[in-house]
Design a protein that fits this description.
The protein is an all-alpha fold. Helix content is 75%, strand content 0%. The protein contains 14 helices and no strands. The radius of gyration is 19 Å and the shape is globular.
Length: 291
């Protein structure tokens, strides 16, 4: 293989790493699981879903915005990431920072253009998200809790978005959006505990830096309690008792997370907990099969 081909191959893999391809696959997969099991009730054929061009555009919009968000986040965090996770930094090493900014602009532009075909509400949400993601990467990420809440709200919103196209499914989608919000919030705070060293050196004011690790853990337990109370309300008072099956898959993993959180005190352990949150998300998605 020639040197130019090796460079192209290396650049492609670096770009796929930059946009967190695995996370994007999970995002798209989650939305299509919603389409099949919640919106379609598990009855629509694959051909019917494939012909649903509006939903396909919705998924593309969401994935494009998320990819652009990952890019701009890494763009502003190069110096911090060189301390916290040097092996995962691709900007400035394999890819030029100019490539990141151009890609960020193109992805957001396409997302907004596609959203125009889905109605003004979805367009407003997509356009607003592109602005908020830039604001998060540039400033809010370094502010205690505010940045965590923003990312969590946007994560929950990505699950709830199909409700703007399919109104009868609002209650069930709200349940899963609530789940996505809380697990995302817990994961974002755990990631801050993982990145304390680099964040502190560059003046970030995340929860672990402001409160310390012990108090931040207590806060996560409080969030976990709020999570359980919220789901309990939706289960028993919002006429969505069928969602009880949700506890079958992610429930044990969520309990395990609480147990391991009490023991964690190193960056590597917090990284493992962050990954565990991701698998709790995946387990929650697969619980849709039981509906």
């Amino acid at each position: 293989m020639s040197a130019s081909k090796k460079h192209i191959k290396k650049s492609v893999f670096a770009f796929l790493k930059l946009i967190r391809t695995f996370n994007l696959i999970i995002l798209g997969f989650t939305q299509y699981m919603c389409r099949y099991f919640i919106i379609g009730g598990g009855h629509d054929s694959i051909l019917t879903i494939a012909k649903d061009w509006k939903f396909f555009l919705l998924v593309l919009c969401t994935v494009f915005v998320a990819a652009a968000g990952y890019i701009i986040n890494d763009y502003y965090d190069i110096k911090i990431d060189l301390i916290n996770k040097p092996k995962r930094v691709v900007l400035g090493n394999v890819l030029h920072r100019r490539v990141a900014m151009i890609s960020h602009f193109i992805l957001n532009t396409f997302a907004c253009l596609l959203a125009l075909f889905l109605g003004w509400k979805i367009f407003a949400i997509i356009a607003g998200t592109t602005v908020l993601m830039w604001f998060y990467a540039n400033q809010l990420k370094r502010t205690a809790l505010v940045g965590n809440l923003l990312i969590s709200v946007l994560t929950g919103l990505s699950v709830f978005l199909p409700a703007f196209l399919y109104h009868p499914t609002e209650a069930t989608l709200s349940f899963y959006a609530c789940f996505a919000f809380f697990i995302s919030l817990i994961r974002e705070i755990i990631k801050d505990m993982e990145d304390v060293k680099g964040d502190e050196e560059f003046g970030c004011r995340t929860l672990p830096i402001v409160w310390g690790i012990r108090k931040t853990k207590i806060f996560i337990y409080a969030v976990s309690l709020a999570f359980l109370l919220s789901l309990s309300y939706m289960l028993f008072y919002a006429n969505t008792s069928i969602q009880f099956y949700f506890l079958v898959l992610p429930g044990p993993l969520f309990i395990w997370l609480q147990v391991q959180l009490a023991k964690a005190d190193t960056s590597g352990q917090f990284l493992q907990l962050s990954h565990l949150c991701k698998w709790i998300m995946v387990a929650g998605v697969f619980s849709m099969i039981l509906l």
